[in-house]
Amino acid sequence: MMATRVVLQDWIQSPQTMNSADANRSWSGVSTYTDAMYRILLHKQWTDFPHHMIAGMTASAFRLVVDRCLTAESISAYNWMAENFVAADFIGVTASQAAGFSFEPTFPLYQKQALLDIKASIDRGVGAILWHDQFVIVTGYDDVERMLFICESKGNEVIRLPYDSFGRNSTPYWYYQVLEACAPIDRWEVCKESLIQAVYKWETHDYMLPPQDYACGAAAYAAIAAALQSGTYDAEQAATVLCYYAKSRLDIASYVAGLKHLSIQMDQVIDEYELLANLYTMIVEVIDDSISWDSREPECVQRVIELIRKAGATEQRAIDAIKRAFPETIGNRFKDVGLR
């Protein structure tokens, strides 16, 4: 007999205490794909690495994308199908996924298949990753109530999401991924490859994003400075974006600090990313003066612009140092550094 209710009870909390709040409620903070995947990896005991190692090995931490008004959407503006699949593959995880638009006439069919895939993953004891205005984790389901139980990558609160609400978000995008198995990897080869991917992400615009609306990699710094200078941004959303990238640059600094043995040239890579993390810490300190930031006091905004320009130059030096560390591998890929 098929189970009608399955909850990964060892995941977070007992189902009796789950919150029955509106599925469209707004959570605090930002839950990224890497955050969600990392919590599943820990739950399945597929990794004992700290978060910054997974963020670095998947190359996700090196992504830098902003829309030109610095909206919070910047954090999730990338090709999910390509990059999330590769991120899992880098660390030896096989995954299946699907995505699309909820306004398409075939969406009900995709929704039905998605629910079957997600429930099968839960039955195997593996949480699933779902886009619900951010990346969240499905930790259980109830066929009688027709509910999925979802949570953020951080915190213990569980929200009920009706089956019919799957894929119906504030934007028309839907996405899910199920992790199937984890195989051994050559850790140091993956780390080396992640640094090469960092060069690719720095130098390449994501072809899925219109360049008139988004800037990627090196170009992102000029876009951030221009938005701040022109005032075409929402202070709260811009703060969310800058604080997110401050965290990712801190992750990178922690990550590369353990990779010194990969090349005799790694010392400068480590030094530049440490300096970059420090610059972002200073940016966050300025933003934390909420009265000055929210009121867009010229001195506050100009200080952030100055630090952003320094951060851009610093990250460029870090990328140049990576190129010097692995010239043969990068050179052999000619114009397609991302090819592996």
Summed up, what is this model?
The protein is an alpha+beta fold.
Structure characterization notes:
- The chain has 11 helices and 9 strands.
- The protein has 2 domains: 5-182, Alpha-Beta Complex (Cathepsin B, Chain A), CATH 3.90.70; 187-332, Four Helix Bundle (Hemerythrin (Met), subunit A), CATH 1.20.120.
- Strands 1, 3, 4, 5, 6, 7 and 8 form a 7-stranded antiparallel sheet that branches. A two-stranded antiparallel ribbon has the order 2-9.
- By secondary structure, it is an alpha+beta fold.
- A hairpin with a 6-residue loop joins β6 and β7 (158-162).
- The longest helix has 28 residues, at 298-325.
- α2 packs across α7.
- The chain is globular.
- It is 47% helix and 15% strand.
- Mean pLDDT is 91; it is low at 12-28.
Write the layout of secondary structure elements.
Layout: E1 5-7, H1 33-44, H2 51-57, E2 65-67, H3 80-90, E3 93-101, H4 107-123, E4 128-131, E5 135-142, E6 147-151, E7 158-162, E8 173-182, H5 187-203, E9 214-216, H6 218-230, H7 235-256, H8 266-287, H9 290-294, H10 298-325, H11 327-332
Estimate what percentage of residues fall within beta strands. 5-15%
The outline comes out as globular
Instruction: Name the CATH architecture of the largest domain.
Output: Alpha-Beta Complex
What is the CA-CA span between the terminal residues?
A: 46 Å
Largest sheet: 7 strands, antiparallel
- What is the H-and-E element order? EHHEHEHEEEEEHEHHHHHH
CATH class of the largest domain: Alpha Beta
Mean pLDDT: 91
Which structural category do the helix and sheet elements fall into?
alpha+beta
Residues in helix, %: 40-55%
Instruction: Identify the CATH homologous superfamily of the largest domain.
Output: Cysteine proteinases
